[in-house]
Each structure stands twice: as structure tokens, then as C-alpha cells.
Amino acid sequence: DTEVTQTPKHLVMGMTNKKSLKCEQHMGHRAMYWYKQKAKKPPELMFVYSYEKLSINESVPSRFSPECPNSSLLNLHLHALQPEDSALYLCASSQEPGKSYGYTFGSGTRLTVV
Amino acid sequence: QKEVEQNSGPLSVPEGAIASLNCTYSDRGSQSFFWYRQYSGKSPELIMFIYSNGDKEDGRFTAQLNKASQYVSLLIRDSQPSDSATYLCAVNLPGNQFYFGTGTSLTVIP
Fold first, then answer.
1. Tens of pLDDT, residues A50-85
2. Among the four A6, B19, B60, B91, which has the fewest Cβ within 10 Å?
3. Which residues lie closer than 8 Å to A66 by C-beta, 6 or more apart?
4. C-beta contacts of B41-50 below 8 A and 24+ residues apart
5. B83: helix, coil or strand?
6. DSSP chain A
7. What is the pairing mode between strands B97-100 and B19-25?
8. Residues in chain B whose beta carbon is closer than 8 A to a beta carbon of chain A?
9. For B23-47, how does the pLDDT look when each residue is reduced to its tens digit (9 = 90+)?
10. Rounded to whole angstroms, how far apart are CA atoms A112 and A49?
């Protein structure tokens, strides 16, 4: 299995909703990442998990809450989002923290906040 | 100062020509360098990575790295319409920080 699977593919949520994005990989990768990408912009790093511990939080607002239940799973919990949070949310994984052979990206979750 | 800079384009080349994409980076501690291709509405797809100075070839793609000048480039030979996409340069910094450039939009004209 050489894939990163993200669910759901599309999500529409209101500003008072609570939802979660899910990411799963079974490649034995020990680093997992959340990125946010707006239209015609590069991906922006949000969070990095290394060996299931949060190692980087790029000053992301607290309405985004990451969770890494085990080495294969990564969640992003969403609460009280704003319309400007609408974007493509990408999960990625890599073999080993600090020794990158490149990421494998999931297909992303297209999030719309109304 | 941005970590990674690319010419946003758009870059247009005729089918069969060589497309040349360039990227510069600011941190001399950068360890590894990547080129991703992203089709509209899709997630980035790794094309090549390079660690050492010089050229690395994979099929129609050649990555070139010059650490002294802090640039990395991607050449696409015999460009095809299916190569039309946004190409993202990415740099891995110590501490597992990974930054993308703004991307160059490439159009290959049949």
C-alpha cells in the first residue's frame, strides 16, 4: 500500500459546526503532516507529527486541533471555523522525520465553510 | 524573505520542446530538494528529489542542483501536453521543516 487516504473528499460546514478530517497511511511512515492550500497558492504547513508526537505547530489558530491516535492515523478536528478557512486540506507522510525522501500526499479534503 | 522562490509564470512551451523551471532558496542549511507536479484541483505528486550538487536524470526529467548559488532547476525534455500543470519546488530544512515555493504554471502547447 503506497497511498495516503484522506476522508472525506469534500466537506461543507457551518461556522458553529464541529467536524474532523481523517488521514491514514500504511507505509510505515513515521512523520505525518497537515497542510492547507488556497487556490493558486502553495501548500502551507500547519502541523508536523514525528513518531506520533506533535513536533511543529506553525502558529495555527486553536480552532484547528490535530490528533495522532497511532502511527497510521492523523486527524484534524475543526471547530468554529471562519469562511476564510475554506481551502484544500492536504495530509502527507514521509518515511522518517528529519530525513526526507519526499512526501506522499493524500488527495485532500476540499473544505467549504459557510 | 521567502524560503523558496519560483517564477510564477505562466510558462508556455511548444510540444516537444524543453521546459526549464527554476527555483532559488534562502537557507544554506537546506538539505534536500524536491519537485512536485500539481494538476488543478489535485494534490501534489512527487516527480524528483535531489541531494547532491549536479544533475539527476529520470526519464524526460532532469533536476539540477547548485548549492553554491542556491538554486535548483527542473528540465522537462520532449514536453507533452500532459505535462501542463503547476510545478512546485520544495526544500527540506533541518528540523523536518519543509517549505514549498509558490509554483510555476507550465502550459505545453500542442
1. 899 998 788 899 999 999 999 999 999 999 999 999
2. B60
3. A34, A46, A47, A49, A54, A57, A74, A75, A76, A77
4. B42/A107, B42/A108, B43/A88, B43/A90, B43/A105, B43/A106, B43/A107, B43/A108, B44/A43, B44/A90, B44/A103, B44/A105, B44/B88, B45/A105, B46/A102, B46/A103, B46/A104, B47/B74, B47/B87, B48/B74, B49/A101, B49/A102
5. helix
6. ---EEEE-SEEEE-TT-EEEEEEEE-S--SEEEEEEE-TTS--EEEEEEETTEEEEE-S--TTEEEEEEETTEEEEEEES--GGG-EEEEEEEESSTTS-S--EE---EEEEE-
7. unpaired
8. 31-32, 34, 42-46, 49, 88, 92, 94-103
9. 999 988 888 899 999 999 899 999 9
10. 25
